[in-house]
Amino acid sequence: MFRLIKDVLNGQQIAELTKIADQATFVDGKISNPHNKTKNNMHMHDQRLQQNAVDIMAQALMANEEFVNFAVPAQFAPPLITRYEPGMQYGLHPDSALMTIGNTTIRSDLSCTIFLEDPSSYEGGHLRIALGTEEVRIKGPAGSAIVYPSHTLHEVEKVTKGRRLVGLTFIQSQIGDSFKRELLYELNEVAALEGLKMSHENFTRLQAVQFNLKRLWTRG
Fold first, then answer.
1. What does the pLDDT look like over 91-129, one tens digit per residue?
2. How many Cα atoms within 13 Å fall on the side-chain side of residue 145?
3. If DSSP codes are grouped into helix, strand and coil, which group holds residue 117?
4. Structure pTM?
5. What are phi and psi of 122, to 5 degrees?
6. How much is the CA Rg of the chain, to the nearest whole Å?
7. Are 95 and 76 contacting, i.e. CB atoms less than 8 angstroms apart?
């Protein structure tokens, strides 16, 4: 299950992140995984500017109710700005199961791409996610984010014109089992959409089910 979440970033935040990217130094993306032969992109490499970008993107994600309800994040990697110029791409791959962030190791349950450019400003560069024999190709509007399971095979198609600028992070969810997480999300959506139509007694019972399932599934 994946979800495109609109308006994670507002116009001011997009402008600030774009300005940071324009000022920053970028390095070959293979520096984070030198053995990956399919990776051809650039990562931002400027500690001071990167921290500013991390603060903006991390705070925006955690302030977005839809993201929090869908991902149920326990922790996530500091969002990294990644750039694709014409000719660059990232071939088909799954994301690593475990990622070392400083002195901490997180499990990547979900991957998240935050789109920072207007999709009409560059050609190519779709995020393609393989779903069995089908596929989904996504090129979200500036400020939106796509959240999808890290274990899925996915790629960034070759950029042929313009610049693809995105933020990228990996999320360890409080509910590691994707099936349980999706069930709880659907239950929460029903409660949000229909709760006001229920009697107080029935809505309270529904809330008890929501809370107890989360309590059960987030143990240990």
1. 999 999 999 888 899 999 999 999 999 999 999 999 999
2. 29
3. coil
4. 0.92
5. -145, 155
6. 18
7. no
Give yes or no for a contact between 25 and 45, defined as CB atoms under 8 angstroms apart.
yes
CA gap 111, 150 in Å, rounded? 5
**Residue 203's closest CA among 192, 212, 213, 217?**
192
The token pair at 39 is 């990776």
Q: How far apart are CA 83 and CA 89, in angstroms?
A: 10
Token code pair at residue 187 = 């239950």
In angstroms, rounded to a whole number, what is the distance separating the alpha carbons of residues 155 and 127? 6
pLDDT in tens, 71-88: 999 999 999 999 999 999
Check the CA dihedral 13-9-106-41 and report its sign. negative
- What residue has token string 């000719």? 87
Phi-psi region of 189 (alpha: psi -120 to 50; beta: other; left: phi over 0): alpha
**CA 99 to CA 10: how far, in whole Å?**
29
